[in-house]
Amino acid sequence: MRLGIHLPHIGRKAGPEAIRRAAVQAEQLGFADVWVSEHIIVPRDAPYPPSAVFWDPVLTLTWAAAYTQRVGLGTSVLVLPMRHPLPLAKELATLQNLSGGRLILGAGVGWLEAEFDALGVPFHERGRRMDEGIAMMRAVWSEDPVTFPTRVIPAIIEDMRSLPKPEQPIPIWIGGSSEPALNRALRLDGWHGSRCSPEQAAPIVQRLRSVRPDPDFAVSLRYGWDGRDPGALRARLEGYAAVGVEHVLIEPAERELADWLAAVERIAQAGAGMLS
Fold first, then answer.
1. Which residues contact 111 (CB under 8 A, 6 or more apart)?
2. Separation CA 187–CA 130 (nearest Å)
3. H or E element at residue 28
4. CA atoms of 181 and 178, how far apart (whole Å)
């Protein structure tokens, strides 16, 4: 079992010093990786997400990378269909190289239709845009020059160049538990589920491992912890490990930075033996 921790880049606790302190703390405590989430623009009265303050995920990870040496850097998740794949591919390749190959791209199709509308992206095409966007990014990361025929994303890519390439491959973990998401994950490098219990995760993990038993395929879950009972958190982590989950990203619920950092200390204690 490997443990990751979410960075405080959302809500009133977010800021450059908060992100720096949390990233350094995570590395010192032995967490495997630090993670960020994404919303670009949200309705004013939306019940979720609870805050419209979302520092950009790629720039947040770049800031965190500058203050750390070892800890991995992950997105949970980037909503790929909202973005054009070419500038995103450039950003991610740059971050991968600046950080010494520490990036994990967690990716999902998204769910907030109003956000897609604001960005001028067809919400009901997001699955097809997701698949084509991933294929496009992988092409420009690996081919020079590159030619890539498109069907749903507006782009003409014929005998073109996009450098630098990632110096190490960027693993892609797919978020979500729908049939399309699980099938997409099986074609890529891992599954990054969210907030399901060990009992709910067990049949999904069994299904994934029946197709992808190879150790390079990641099985990861995101879990939000309310900070109340470290013993219950330990039991939950052991439950995940028992059903074959190999990586857990934990997101504290605290809204103030001092409380957040203290919660991370308690998470490290609950995860004794699971940290490097």
1. none
2. 13
3. helix 16-29
4. 5
Q: Which of 5, 18, 23 is nearest to 69 (CA)?
A: 23
Tokens describing residue 122: 């067809």
CA dist 208 and 276 (Å) reads 26
Beta pairing class for 146-148 and 103-108: unpaired
Q: Which residues pair with 108 in a beta bridge?
A: 79
Over residues 89-147, the pLDDT tens digits come to 999 999 999 999 999 999 999 999 999 999 999 999 999 999 999 999 999 999 999 99
CA–CA gap between residue 92 and residue 166 (Å, rounded): 8
Reported as a single tens digit per residue, the pLDDT across 52-81 is: 999 999 999 999 999 999 999 999 999 999
- In this model, does residue 159 exceed pLDDT 90? yes
Residue with tokens 């010494």: 100
Q: On the CB side of 248, how many CA atoms lie within 13 Å of its CA?
A: 30
The Cα 105–Cα 73 span in angstroms is 8
Rounded to whole angstroms, how far apart are CA atoms 26 and 19? Answer: 11
pTM over 0.85: yes
- Give how far the C-alpha of residue 240 lies from the chain's centroid of Cα atoms, to the nearest Å: 19
